[in-house]
Amino acid sequence: MAFEYSPELIEKAGKIRLLVLDVDGVMTDGRIIFGSFGVELKNFDVNDGLGIFLVKKAGIKCVLLTAKGSPAVLARAKQLKVDKVYKDIHYKINALGPIRDDLGVSDEEICFMGDDLIDIPVLRRIGLSVCPDNAMDDVKKYCDIVTTKKGGHGAVRELCEFLLKAQGKWREVTSRYFE
């Protein structure tokens, strides 16, 4: 990883109890593909999915916060067993209060990964702000971490591994794979 495990980042990551993820541009590469019959298709990275599984296994809750709510997103959320999906939210900061209330966390216990302008108000407010390498430059200014991976190409996995290692939970949740 290109970002440093600075004491400040490790301290922030140590407090995280909830991972909030944008979808388009974070869990996907941001492209929207329409099939012949108008069906919206999205590409998700399987490695990101395992990262989400691992953080959930470590006791960190995970929710999706998206301006859209396509059937593809809902199907992927169900497959990943995320704790909740907040969809059709165009001014994402308005969802922060309900997210905190629904999941019983404070702002500093939230890590959010976003990539575009509509994500900035949330990124400025929470405990650990993250964006993928291909995020808008204006977004990067507000992030504690810019991953080395692009959205839809392992950025979420990179973040999940960082959180688990910073919290000392990496070996615990991956030990069965090394036996």
Keywords:
8 helices, 6-stranded parallel β-sheet, alpha/beta, 179 residues, two-stranded antiparallel sheet
Account of the 3D structure:
The protein is an alpha/beta fold. It is 39% helix and 15% strand. A six-stranded parallel β-sheet has the order 5-4-1-6-7-8, with helices on both faces. It has a two-stranded antiparallel sheet with strand order 2-3. Helix 5 (120-123) links the parallel strand 6 and strand 7. The protein is globular and about 50 Å long. The chain starts with 6 loop residues before the first helix and ends with a helix.
Quickly describe the structure.
This protein is 39% helix and 15% strand. By secondary structure, it is α/β, with parallel strands linked by helices.
